[in-house]
Amino acid sequence: MRRLRWQCRRGVKELDALLCAYLDNQYAASGVTDQRLFSELLALEDDLLIAYFLADSLPEHQELKQLVKKIRSSFMG
Length: 77
Prior knowledge:
Layout: H1 2-8, H2 13-27, H3 32-42, H4 46-54, H5 62-76
Helix pairs in contact: 2-5
């Protein structure tokens, strides 16, 4: 968990808040697949994460797309 928390810190306040909120509130209860996908998501470059969470872009990979939508909706209401 400490490694994941460190990876959630990206230096962009809004992105940090979004990723840390998911880690704190949903990660432990999510399934193995979503946990694996979250680790894959954290391995992406910051510019992609910014596009996925702070702009209107989505990943092409269907499972990652669903996780991004889930994180967005849980954080933004």
